[in-house]
Amino acid sequence: MKKAGEKDTTKAISKNLDQALKTFNQRGAVYGLSYIQYGEVMTSLFPEGINLNTVDAINRFGLLSMIISKLTRYCNQWDEPHKDSIHDLGVYSFMLEGVDDSIRS
């Protein structure tokens, strides 16, 4: 026996999944396969691997990951540059600099 609201909940979930698929397809058209290229780039940057054994190291790596992600997105739109990605690159770079500076002080 179905409870009240089950049909509405299922319908809402289905709608959310449909919207997620549209978003995935729209972003894919803009960013290409940047999420696949990410691993190749990171492996090139850290051929010996990377040790993330402190909170500071993980924070730095998280910001670097965002920078690389934005950079690959930007490069996938080389003929029609994606301004949001390049702006985000600047923001994440300054955030990383701030974290680096706070570690040093």
Write the layout of secondary structure elements.
Elements: H1 6-31, H2 34-45, H3 55-76, H4 83-104
Helix pairs in contact: 2-3, 3-4
Tertiary shape: extended
Average pLDDT reading:
90
Major β-sheet annotation: none
From the alpha carbons, calculate the radius of gyration and give it in angstroms. 19 Å
Strand content: under 5%
Distance between termini?
63 Å
Q: What's the number of extended β-strand segments?
A: 0
Protein structure class: mainly alpha
Return the string of H and E elements: HHHH
The helix content is: over 70%
Oligomer: single chain
Poorly predicted parts:
none
Number of individual domains: 2
Can you tell me about this structure?
The protein has 105 residues and is mainly alpha-helical. The chain folds into two domains: 1-31; 32-104, no CATH class. 78% of the residues lie in helices and 0% in strands. It has four helices and no strands. It has helices at 6-31, 34-45, 55-76, 83-104. Helix 2 (34-45) packs across helix 3. The protein is extended and about 60 Å long. The mean pLDDT is 90.
Summary of the model, kept short:
The protein has 105 residues and is mostly helical.
Question: Main traits of this protein?
Answer:
2 domains, single chain, 105 residues, 78% helix, mainly alpha, 4 helices
